[in-house]
């Protein structure tokens, strides 16, 4: 059974996209995913692959950690 550590990846994709005056579809086209993927990622309901995260940060020309933030959860064994 897969253990849930409660970790999370938050992001500021929405903020970067709005500042760039782009639609979700435009960003999706630039990074090679569907509009739905951008939508659920912005809502925090989807953690992108590392490859997609790098594509997004490269597109906006900012460090990966400026867009995606790792939030460590607590291990239930501790």
List keywords for this structure.
mainly alpha, single chain, 2 strands, DNA binding, 434 Repressor (Amino-terminal Domain), Cro/C1-type_HTH, 49% helix, DNA-binding, HTH cro/C1-type domain-containing protein, Lambda_DNA-bd_dom_sf
Distance between the termini: 18 Å
Question: Helical proportion?
Answer: 40-55%
How many DSSP helices?
5
Structural class: mainly alpha
CATH architecture: Orthogonal Bundle
Total tally of structural domains: 1
Poorly predicted parts:
none
Radius of gyration: 14 Å
Strand content: 5-15%
Give the integer mean of the pLDDT values.
Answer: 93
Number of strands: 2
Describe this structure in words.
The protein is mostly helical and 78 residues long. It has one domain (8-65): lambda repressor-like DNA-binding domains (434 Repressor (Amino-terminal Domain)), CATH 1.10.260.40. Helix content is 49%, strand content 10%. The chain contains 5 helices and 2 strands; from the N terminus they run E-H-H-H-H-H-E. The chain has helices at residues 13-19, 24-31, 35-42, 50-60, 64-67; strands spanning 8-11, 68-71. A two-stranded antiparallel sheet has the order 1-2. Helix 2 packs across helix 3. The longest helix has 11 residues, at 50-60. The chain is globular and about 40 Å long. The two termini are 18 Å apart. The relative contact order is 0.26.
């Amino acid at each position: 059974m897969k253990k849930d550590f409660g970790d999370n990846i938050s992001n500021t994709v929405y903020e970067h996209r709005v500042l760039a005056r782009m639609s979700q579809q435009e960003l999706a086209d630039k990074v090679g995913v569907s509009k739905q993927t951008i939508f659920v990622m912005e809502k925090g309901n989807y953690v992108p692959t590392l490859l997609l995260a790098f594509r997004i940060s490269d597109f906006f020309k900012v460090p990966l950690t400026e867009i995606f933030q790792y939030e460590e959860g607590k291990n239930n064994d501790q």
